[in-house]
Amino acid sequence: MDSIPTSIVIFGASGDLTARKLIPALYNNFKKGRLATCTNVVGFARRPYNDETFRTCLREGVETFSPESFDPATWEQFAVRLHYFQGDLDNGEDFPKLETYLKTLEGGPSNRLYYLATAPEHYANVIGELGEAGMAGQAADLWRRIVIEKPFGHDLASAVELNQRVHAVFEESQVYRIDHYLGKETAQNILFFRFANTIFEPVWNRRYINNVQVTVAETVDVGHRAGYYDSAGVLRDMFQNHLLQLLALVAMEAPSSFSADAVRNEKAKVFESIRPVALSDTVRGQYAGYREAAGVAQDSQTPTFAALKLNIDNWRWQGVPFYLRSGKAMARKTSEIIIEFQRPPHLMFRLPEGQDFTPNILSLCIQPDEGIHLRFEAKLPDSAQEMRSVDMDFHYASLFSGSLPEAYERLLLEALEGDASLFTRSDGIEASWKMVDPILKGWQATNDPPLASYPPGSWGPDQAEELLNRDGCLWRLGCTDELDAPPAKR
Ligand code: BG6
After folding, report:
1. How far is CA 154 from CA 90, 158, 160, 436, in A?
2. How far is the CA of 249 from the centre of ligand 1 (A)?
3. Quick one: DSSP state of residue 179?
4. What percent of the chain has pLDDT above 90?
5. pTM: predicted TM-score of the whole model, two decimal places
6. Does 485 score more than 90 pLDDT?
7. Rounded CA gap, 351 and 358, in Å?
8. Residues with Cβ within 6 A of ligand 1?
9. Which of 62, 285, 299, 335 could make a disulfide contact with 461, Cβ separation 3.0–4.6 Å?
10. How far, in Å, is the centroid of ligand 1 from the Cα of 30?
11. Residue 386: its pLDDT value, please?
12. Would residue 242 show up in a list of annotated catalytic residues for this protein?
């Protein structure tokens, strides 16, 4: 751990993210003894708080959002590290003032982690002001890093422009673009599962895998976020970042080391290999009632659900479809990856009339029931030839004690320690926009496929089922006990 003090400066510190995620994550790291005791956290925002009122708000945040770990005595030790600087993001004069304030607080050499928790329209400005105020340059042993929240850009052009603005002030090695899915234990475990074991890798390719499915379904609707969401939609909100990152973890080649650049190089190759998506391989939906939510346009065409079929043009994956779907107001909250293996080349067992064969399925369950399941066929006892699907299960909750840490705990720690493996590099961001942008533009220009309505609490519009059915596939769920579900159709 660094012996030089570190200041964490949060821009937009009076917002939801700070109270809900950032401070609980820092508090939990502090409680686990993982934050150097000399670390200062400085909140920058416009509201007329002082240190005391700021601490009181943040205490409520930790009590509410991390109640199981809240402990008043530890909080008191942690809270003295929290400070508030009242400033206006749009006022250039407030940045040199902040610099003076920080220097006084630090009282000597200090590292800095700047965290952009503001609305995205402020990113370029804050970055520019940090540059102007001379707050981004690194001295010999002192580092300056910046963490940037999503959304990173609104489309390819704005993402490229933002990268240019960032690079005018910070070196790429100073930049940590957050995708909180990469901080989830189960997402990180995908690489361990694939590359710390030998038995899966030989079958992890087109010869043995029939298709891959990524489902990120949420039961919540747009809630109070309509202002942002109605101009974003599900493709920008979930696909450009979280779903494509999950896909890259499943599809990438083995990196030569676990270093940030080795991992990100392999991910970049996956993004580059994704074939441009035909609009006929896309489905977009909007849940019924979305347009009634406050802040949503009456005639909104914003999709709250999408499903895509992707092809990865490389030796490993040629001919293996990757199906991705995500939506709000769906039947269940689940984030999972299904690897569906090929059927046996010749099945010598007779299946009862009307029953279809279930291929082997590996389910990587990201949340909420974190674990891994391998489904295979077993002979039904006391029958001649009947079989049924059974699961080999691994559940984090039953094997490891304690709840899994929040994604932000790991991500903040990695940024403080200077490991960018779990953060997105500029080329990765641009490559993912290159994939998503033509779909967004195509939908807008052609209205094809038309926006389909789906009932809240469902699995999205029927067209999403048809997308797979036409290839002889089915959406599958493996992360809860679905074995009693109707038999597969293929
Ligand atoms: C965010 C999206 O990035 O991820 C939200 O902006 C979404 O719309 C959230 O609800 C989902 O995250 P999680 O961790 O609950 O799956």
Report:
1. 21, 6, 10, 11
2. 18
3. -
4. 89
5. 0.94
6. no
7. 11
8. 150, 218, 237, 335
9. 285
10. 25
11. 87
12. yes
